[in-house]
Write a structure and sequence with these properties.
seven-stranded antiparallel sheet; D-amino Acid Aminotransferase, Chain A, domain 1; about 20% strand; alpha+beta; 6 domains; 24 helices
Length: about 650
C-alpha cells in the first residue's frame, strides 16, 4: 500500500473523479475530447487503485457510474434492472485465464449507442437508451426509422433484447460530405449515431441510416435457452441483424482475436474492441455481478502498437471557431501498417499534462488502432511554447480556462480562419473553380498559416513540403491541385466579381454587371452608385454593398495582390437574339445539360431571360415531365403558359425558333 497519508489519497481521488467526470461529459454529451483515450484509461486505473487502497468510493466516481447523464427533453424511463458496463483487459492471456474450461462467445464491441427494445404482440412497443444505466431515454419513434429493424416479428409474446445502434463508416462519410459547415461535421460515427438516435424529431433520425445490431436477449415469454449462441440464432431467425460472433475456448480464443484484429480495417461498422461472454447462461448468471460489472462477460481492448520517436514541433492550427489547437509533429514511425508523423494534442491542458518540449522522446500509438495519439513523454522538458499571436492573422491570442481545461483562442473577429466561407465561395465551381480545394483542405491550409488571402492560393507551390505532409495529401494530390490552380488563373471578370462574395451580388447579378461594363474589369471597379442602379435588376441595397466593398481599403489591397495572379478574359460574349424578349422558367431534372445553370447560360446567350417562378410574364416553362402535377406545372396551366421539354429548347438554341 502507498505510504501517502489517507487525506492525500482522498484529495487525489476527488481530483481524479472530477477530471474524469468532465472528460466523460465532454465525450458523451458534447462530442469533443479534452484528453486522450490513454490519459483517461491511466487516470481511471489510478483512481480505481486508490479506491481499493482507501476503501472509499466517492459519489460520481466513473468506477461506479455508467454512460452519460440524461439531459435532453426526451421522455425518461427507469430500467427494470441496472444496466452495467463491462470490465476490460488488453491481455489475451487474461481472457484465456478468465474463460478457463468454459465455452465463450466472442464478438465485435460495436461503438454506438446501446438500446433496449421491447416487442409485444409481434410489434415494436418501446425503445429505450441505456442512459446512465438506471434511467434511459425513450426513443421509440426514432428506432422505428432504423434501416434494418423489423417492425413486426413472428413472435407474439413479450420480447426484450439489447443491441447497439450504429452508423457505418460509409454512411458517416456520406452524411459529413452533405454538411457544408466544416465546424458542424461530426467527429466520429459514434457521436453522429448518438446525436441521431436522441433527436426529438424522428425525421432527422430517418435520414441518418442508423442500423440496429442485436447482441443480447433479455427475455422472450415462454422461451427457454441454455446457451447464448442459441439466443442469438433465435433472434436472427426473428429477422434481427445480429452482431458477428464466434464460439471460442481457452485453446482457440487467441486465434479468434487475431482473426478479428486482421479484419479491423475492412469492418464496415465502428468497433472499439471485442466482447467475450460465457455461452452457458445459467453458469454465467450464477457468478453474479460486482458494483459495476457483470461477471459473465468482459471487454477486450486492442493492445496498442507503441513506437518511440522524437517530438520535433508543435504546430498550432487555427479553426473557424477561434480555437487554436496544438498538433504534435514527430519523426515518422510505422503504426498498424501505416506511416505516422502527426498527432492531435487536443488543447493546452493536454499539452501541459504531457509536459511536451521540442526534442522530447515520446511514445505514440493509434487509439482503437485508428487515431494517432501520444502515449507517454519520457523527457518531459515541458518547454513547448504557447504562441502569443495567431498563426493565421498575427493578432494576439488569449488563453481561456473552462472548468480547468485550458484552450488557446484567437479573439480577432476578422481572422482569416474565421472567414472560411469566403474562401470556399472564392474557389467554388461558379467562381474561380479551383478543383481539389475542399472546405476541409482550405481549413487546414488557412489554419497552418499557408493561406492568408485569396492571392496566396496561387502561390501554394512555395509550401509543397508542408502540404504533401498533410494527412490525405500526397505528391499526386499536390500535382493535381497545381494543375487546377493554373487552370483557374484564366478566368472572366464575371467569375471574379462573383468570387468576391459581395452581399447581393450572386452569379446572375455578376453577369448583368459584367455585360453592362462590356466585360472590362477596370470599368467594373469604377462603377458608381447611380450607374449601378440604372442597370436593370440591380437595386439600391445591392449597389450600396458593391460600392462599399470597392471603397474599403483592405479589399482594395487584397485585389491589388490578387489581380497579378490572374489572366482575365475580357472579350465580350456574342449575344444572340434567337430568344430575345422571351422569359423562361426551368424545373425538374435535365438529361442533356449538366444542371439548370448550364441551360440558363445558353438561354441568356441567345438573348432570353430565365426567372425563378412562373408568372404572367413567363413565356415558357421548361419541364421534361410536361404532364406532372408539380406546383409550377399547375401554375403554368392556370396562366396559360406553354410547357415545353428539353428537346424543344435545345432545338431552338441550335436551329433558331
Amino acid at each position: 500500500m502507498s505510504s501517502k497519508p489517507k487525506e492525500q489519497k482522498l484529495a487525489r481521488q476527488r481530483e481524479l473523479t472530477e477530471k474524469l467526470r468532465q472528460a466523460a461529459r465532454a465525450y458523451y454529451q458534447e462530442s469533443r475530447e479534452i484528453m486522450t483515450n490513454q490519459q483517461y484509461d491511466d487516470l481511471y486505473d489510478e483512481l480505481k487503485a486508490l479506491e481499493e487502497e482507501t476503501g472509499i468510493t466517492l459519489a460520481g466516481s466513473p468506477t461506479v457510474t455508467v454512460g452519460y447523464e440524461v439531459l435532453s427533453e426526451l421522455a425518461k424511463e427507469t430500467h427494470p434492472e441496472r444496466m452495467l458496463s463491462l470490465d476490460k483487459t488488453k491481455d489475451p492471456d487474461q481472457l484465456v485465464s478468465w474463460l478457463g474450461a468454459q465455452e465463450g462467445i466472442l464478438s465485435w464491441k460495436l461503438d454506438g449507442l446501446t438500446i433496449v427494445l421491447t416487442y409485444r404482440d409481434g410489434r415494436l412497443l418501446k425503445a429505450v437508451t441505456r442512459g446512465n444505466g438506471q434511467v434511459g431515454e425513450v426513443v421509440t419513434s426514432n428506432a422505428r426509422t432504423f434501416i434494418n429493424l423489423p417492425q413486426t416479428i413472428d413472435f407474439k409474446g413479450e420480447l426484450v433484447l439489447r443491441g447497439e445502434a450504429v452508423i457505418s463508416y460509409a454512411d458517416f462519410a456520406r452524411i459529413n460530405e452533405e454538411i457544408a459547415d466544416e465546424s458542424s461535421k461530426y467527429k466520429n460515427p459514434r457521436n453522429l449515431c448518438s446525436g441521431s438516435v436522441r433527436q426529438l424529431s424522428s425525421e432527422i433520425t430517418a435520414g441518418r441510416s442508423v442500423r440496429f445490431m442485436a447482441f443480447g436477449l433479455v427475455s422472450a415469454a415462454g422461451e427457454e435457452f441454455a446457451l447464448r449462441s442459441e439466443q442469438l440464432d433465435w433472434l436472427a431467425a426473428r429477422g434481427f441483424e445480429v452482431v458477428e460472433h464466434t464460439k471460442v475456448s481457452a485453446a482457440t480464443i487467441k486465434k479468434a482475436i487475431a482473426d478479428y484484429e486482421a479484419r479491423i480495417e475492412e469492418n464496415p461498422l465502428p468497433s472499439d474492441g471485442l466482447v467475450l461472454i460465457l455461452n452457458d447462461i445459467a453458469y454465467g448468471r450464477s457468478l453474479g455481478t460486482t458494483a459495476k460489472f457483470p461477471r459473465d462477460s468482459i471487454a477486450f481492448k486492442w493492445k496498442d502498437e507503441v513506437r518511440q520517436t522524437v517530438l520535433r514541433e508543435i504546430e498550432w492550427s487555427a479553426s473557424r471557431t477561434g480555437l487554436i489547437n496544438p498538433i504534435a509533429v514527430f519523426d515518422p514511425v510505422e503504426l498498424e501498417g501505416t506511416t505516422v508523423s502527426r498527432a492531435s494534442v487536443h488543447n493546452v491542458s493536454v499539452m501541459r499534462e504531457l509536459k511536451l518540449g521540442l526534442g522530447d522522446q515520446i511514445s505514440v500509438y493509434k487509439a482503437n488502432m485508428i487515431i494517432p495519439q501520444i502515449r507517454e513523454n519520457f523527457t518531459q522538458s515541458n518547454d513547448a511554447p504557447v504562441p502569443a499571436v495567431c498563426p493565421v492573422c498575427g493578432q494576439a491570442t488569449r488563453l481561456d480556462n473552462e472548468n480547468g481545461v485550458e484552450t488557446l483562442v484567437c479573439p480577432n473577429p476578422d481572422c482569416q480562419a474565421k472567414q472560411i466561407k469566403s474562401f470556399t465561395l472564392f474557389v467554388s465551381r461558379d467562381a474561380l473553380n479551383i478543383d481539389g480545394l475542399s472546405e476541409m483542405t482550405l481549413e487546414k491550409l488557412i489554419g497552418r498559416g499557408l493561406v492568408r488571402e485569396p492571392a496566396d492560393l496561387f502561390r501554394l507551390d512555395r509550401f509543397k513540403e508542408e502540404i504533401t505532409a498533410m494527412e490525405g495529401f500526397g505528391e499526386k494530390s499536390f500535382e493535381n491541385l497545381k494543375k487546377s490552380i493554373e487552370k483557374a488563373r484564366h478566368t472572366t471578370p464575371e467569375r471574379l466579381l462573383y468570387s468576391l462574395g459581395i452581399a447581393g451580388i450572386g452569379k446572375a447579378n455578376a453577369r448583368l454587371i459584367a455585360r453592362h461594363c462590356h466585360n472590362s474589369w477596370q470599368a467594373i471597379q469604377e462603377l458608381g452608385f447611380t450607374e449601378l442602379t440604372a442597370i436593370d435588376g440591380i437595386g439600391e441595397v445591392m449597389a450600396e454593398s458593391f460600392c462599399a466593398y470597392f471603397a474599403d481599403e483592405k479589399n482594395r489591397r487584397l485585389l491589388a495582390a490578387l489581380l497579378p495572379q490572374l489572366s482575365l478574359d475580357e472579350s465580350e460574349e456574342e449575344s444572340g437574339s434567337t430568344l430575345a424578349g422571351l422569359t423562361f422558367v426551368i424545373t425538374g431534372s435535365l438529361e442533356h445539360y449538366e444542371n439548370r445553370d448550364a441551360l440558363k447560360e445558353q438561354i441568356e446567350k441567345a438573348g432570353g431571360k430565365v426567372a425563378g417562378s412562373v408568372s404572367s410574364k413567363t413565356s415558357y416553362l421548361i419541364n421534361n415531365d410536361t404532364a406532372s402535377a408539380s406546383t409550377k406545372n399547375k401554375k403554368a396551366k392556370e396562366l396559360g403558359v406553354p410547357i415545353i421539354d428539353e428537346a424543344v429548347i435545345t432545338d431552338w438554341l441550335q436551329n433558331g425558333r
